[in-house]
Amino acid sequence: GVLDTPLVPRLALAAKDLGHSMGVLDMPVPPEPRQGPEFTGRLRDYQSRCCEKMLDNKLRRGTIWAVPRTGKTVMAAYLTSQIALFPSIFLCERIDLVQQTVRVYKEMTSGFSVGWAADGEFHPGDFLVATVQSCLQALDIKLTKNEKSWIGLEDEKPLAVEQRAALKKHLRDSLSIIVDESHHLAAPSYRQVISYIASPYW
Questions:
Q1: What backbone torsions phi and psi does residue 199 show, to the nearest 5 degrees?
Q2: pTM of the entire structure?
Q3: How far is 14 from 64, CA to CA, in rounded Å?
Q4: Inter-residue contact 89 to 169 (CB < 8 Å)
Q5: Which of 40, 53, 112, 128 is the most buried (most CB within 10 A)?
Q6: Are 201 and 26 in contact (CB under 8 A)?
């Protein structure tokens, strides 16, 4: 059968519990990219080579590993403008990272709106930068103390009911997703957020 991305791991686990094996062929159906998004910044040579490798990947999925202060957010902004699938979302773990990411995107991209969700505030946009904490609020997922300590998530002000609903809809409708500090995807809370997003592009 053909399934949305979030259903595949759930079905695989259910099949395993029933004693069945299951093969998965990952073939995302590409939506039509939007015309108009542009990257107005400039990439360094190593950034350009990295982005070319990502875009050459037919599945459009991958991980950028780079040391701090090498411009990962700039590369993400370039890739977002090239993939041009909206709505999309960028997940961060800290409020200051949300602010930094929004600033880079507004300075270096055009042709789509940039919004953010963090610390009790929600500002909609085609491209949304959100803390994992805000997404957990939107999905009504509670963190355990151990997990919160392990990931190092900050306490945030609560989102209003209508803001939670709007963020939940954005998560559900997102066509592409970028995850900062992706090693935290091993955490159950991250996996619950990711599994809610049907995006074929990571």
A1: -60, 135
A2: 0.83
A3: 31
A4: no
A5: 128
A6: no
